[in-house]
Amino acid sequence: MKRNLLKIVSSIILTGIFVCLLSALSSAELKASFSLKGPTTVRAGDTVTIQIKADGEGILGIRAEITYDKSQLIYSTSSGVLSKWKVEITEENGKLSIWAEENNDFKSPINSSVTLVKLNFKASEKLKTDDKISVKLKVLEASSTEDSIENLSASYSVNVSRPLSDNCDLASLSVEGYTVSPQFSASVTDYEIEGEVAYTSAPLKINAKAKDGEADVEISGSRLSVGENTIRIKVTAEDGVTVKTYRIKAVMAQDPDYVPSSDSTLSQINVSEGRLSPAFSPSVHNYIVYVPYEITSVTVTSSATDSRAVPPETVEAELLPDDNEIRLVCTAEDGTESIYTVHVMRMPDYSAADTDTGADTDTGTDTEEYTDTGSDTETETEDTAADTFSETSDTETVNGDETAEVTTSEEPSANDPDTEPEESDTDIKEPGDNKNRMFPLWALFVAAAAGLVLGGAVSILVFNFSNERK
Question: Taking the complete model, does pTM exceed 0.85, yes or no?
Answer without folding.
Answer: no
